[in-house]
Amino acid sequence: MTDFKLDMTMMLAIHNAFRRDLEHVSEMHARSEGWELFERMLHVHHHAEDELLWPVTREAVAGDADDLAVLDEMSTEHAAFGPLLAELNRTLDRGERPSDARANLDARLREHMAHEEGAALPLVDRTLTEEQWVEFGQGSTKLVGADMPRFLPWMLEGADENTTARVLRLLPEPVQQTYRDEWRPAYAALDRWAPNGAVT
């Protein structure tokens, strides 16, 4: 985290939340609150990058073929997740054990996040201004929208104290307090990966 000039705390915390949940996905045999939330957050995260981050970065590196190729790879990798998620959902809907679908999603998502952290985020860090990075964060928050009471405790589940403190410092004090008093306790009370649940 300290290798970046921009504050990548929240981005890396989101990636770690996906990695954490992949451990549950690898064991699931039916739909659950955990799966529905994982899928929704993955869609929001990739949509934010595709619509708000990669285009700004593309403008900043215009004319650099190598940098543009990295951004092309990010978009291509994102596009592959639609079919992977659809395949896994079909197996769940049929009541089948989705072993291959789960393994494919696990491998591709881990590979993508490693690629992003190793190539795309350093590129963003090198080319974007702090103002542009903050604008991306604000735009991403708007895309989360009404899911914020689930998103924030989901992202911070299992995070270390330093990461949690850094993320919360990015938020207004009333939101921090609501997270502590309402959102985190409500989230902690859920059995997210029990079968047949639905996120409300």
Description:
The protein is an all-alpha fold and 200 residues long. It has one domain. It contains nine helices and no strands. The radius of gyration is 17 Å and the shape is globular. The mean pLDDT is 94.
Order of helices and strands: HHHHHHHHH
Number of helical stretches of at least 4 residues: 9
Please give the number of β-strands.
0
Shape field: globular
The low-confidence runs, each spanning 5 or more residues with pLDDT under 50, are: none
The biggest sheet amounts to: none
Distance between the termini: 34 Å
Q: What radius of gyration results from the CA coordinates? A: 17 Å
Integer average pLDDT? 94
Structural class: mainly alpha
Domain tally:
1
As a percent range, the share of strand residues is under 5%
Helix content: over 70%
Write the topology of this structure.
Layout (H helix, E strand, L loop, with lengths): L8 H17 L7 H28 L4 H15 L1 H13 L5 H29 L2 H15 L3 H9 L4 H9 L3 H16 L12
Helix pairs in contact: 1-2, 1-5, 2-3, 2-6, 3-5, 4-5, 7-9
List keywords for this structure.
200 residues, mainly alpha, globular
Summarize the structure.
The chain is mostly helical and 200 residues long.
